[in-house]
Amino acid sequence: MISDTCSCGEELEAPDFEGLVEAVVGHFDAAHPGLGLKALHVRDYLEAKERLSPDVERLPRIGPVAISEVEAERVTDVLAFFDRDAFAGNPAWAACYCMFHHVGSDELWSERSRATNREELRERLLSGATTAVIATVEDKVIGWCNATGRAAFPKHAGGSEPADELVGSIVCFVVAPPYRGHGVARRLLDGACELLRRAGFAFVEAYPTADASTAESAYRGTTSLYGAAGFDDVGDGVMRRSLT
Length: 244
Fold this sequence. Notes:
- By secondary structure, the chain is an alpha+beta fold.
- The protein has helices at 17-31, 39-51, 75-85, 100-103, 106-109, 114-127, 184-198, 223-228; strands at 2-5, 11-14, 65-69, 132-137, 140-149, 167-175, 203-206, 232-235, 238-242.
- Strands 3-4-5-6-7-9-8 form a 7-stranded mixed sheet, sandwiched between helices. The chain has a two-stranded antiparallel ribbon with strand order 1-2.
């Protein structure tokens, strides 16, 4: 028998993986129907619990951090980072592969699997539709920042001033748990701004998390992080900085 325990405390058991998926979906349909949990979500979650790195304790010291743009030869390393390290300790988010902001619609997002998101991120990185910077320590990817033209993000595109073609957006930071608290996000932010400047954008925008209480909830960055990097609050949850 294999088992999983719901956050409500209910322990669910089944003889095999697919049986456990059915048991979890049945429990949520009966006990938590408002969440609309589907089999694909449960399957991805349970698989992630087995796949993700067990390393979640913060390291007291880390080696020198290097920041670089994601080039074609590093795409496999980026996918491996999301496969194992990025969401260690947080399997509920491990199917995202930083695609949520590119999809935009909650309804469409609810139909997507981990495999779909992983493959689309790979394609977007190789084609340049998504651009990003990574942080590495001894050549191991330990952090990521999605920094792409604003037009690529449905929930942010279409702003009247400045026009989309002038604005790059920073929408997501992910730092592996052992490397948090060492200034990696600030290094990623500096690298992301430089990436967007080199790409020809006149401005960079960010959409910080309000009242972030955990490292996970601060995935869009914080007002203090952006403020220290010269961003101004321009209203409606947007912070912006000139790149010229």
